Amino acid sequence: MNTYRGKKDVVLIVDDSPDTLSMLNDTLDQAGITVLVALEGAQALTIAANITPDVILMDALMPNMDGFETCRRLKENRDLAHIPVIFMTGLSDTESIVKGFTAGGVDYITKPVKGDELIARMLAHLSNARLTLSARVALDSAGQFLFSAAADGNLLWATPQAYHLLEDAGLDTQWLSENLPTQLRQLLAPHFNKEKGLLIKAAEKALEIRYISQTGSDEYLLQLIDMERPSDVDRLRSALPMTERESEVLLWIAHGKTNREIGTILSMSPRTANKHLEQIFRKLNVENRTAAAVIALKHLQN
Fold it and tell me: Where is the HTH luxR-type domain positioned along the sequence (predicted)?
């Protein structure tokens, strides 16, 4: 097996079998990966809350709290929900596989685990998880109040800035769990005009929720708008002869993002981002990203 070279990742193994733990520990240690161990679900939740792992290998069948329930509880914690969970199971029937994905798992491997296959799958999911997390951090640092929801209106994730804006508007955790799903079901209904946005009358300030795109079979990307201040995208669009999408791409160019990163952030392909970039260059009469970024930053600073 090829030794993994690079940043030392942290993997949490959750399994009640000493033999499995020993084998996995040796395999991952040889690959240069730091291993944390939990013997059951409750212990895994405690460890993850204190030492955030990069990926979790989860045994499906354990006493007390099984792997499926443990995964569900992890995904309910917004600080841990981004961690990819790979199920390990001797169950290969369709029902068990579906149950693992429904609980929030990203993959599964059947026991006995093959070391090379495990490392390959882990590295693929780690790369995807890092890219997604990087996009969310970028969105948050730029003041983008984004969140995603399922078709039933339940909140899946949100940037810290979005949570702060909701709190500033006087909307607490109870409102998010009891009222937000009802509001979002209106916006996500097939007959709703998604170009309009949905006005939320909060106690402290008015907010608007805008539909951005569907990012999965049951996941929708949405944006919170503070009605008391224009967003950076709105400021660029009002100052420059560009569409909203072009303004979004230009904003991320100004933040130094590559086409691949912009594609991840805006849920588009790098090629589509490049097409928008060509239009931006033409409209701004510039020849490169640096010149376009300078123009954007000038308007944002003003």
Answer: 235-300
How do strand 198-201 and strand 206-216 relate by DSSP bridges? Answer: antiparallel
What's the pLDDT tens digit per position in 57-94?
Answer: 999 888 888 999 999 999 888 778 888 999 988 766 67
Mean pLDDT of 170-188: 87
> How many Å is the Cα radius of gyration of the chain?
22
Cα torsion angle, 66, 72, 76, 78, sign: positive
Q: Which fold has domain 232-301?
A: Arc Repressor Mutant, subunit A (1.10.10)
Task: Kindly report the pTM of this predicted structure.
Answer: 0.49
CATH of domain 10-133: 3.40.50.2300
The DSSP bridge partners found for residue 37 are: 13
CATH classification number, 142-226, choose in 3.40.190.10, 3.30.450.20, 3.90.180.10, 3.30.70.1400: 3.30.450.20
d(CA 213, CA 221): 5
pLDDT at 131 > cutoff 80: no
Q: Where are the domains of the chain?
A: 10-133, 142-226, 232-301
In the prediction, which pLDDT does 271 show?
A: 92
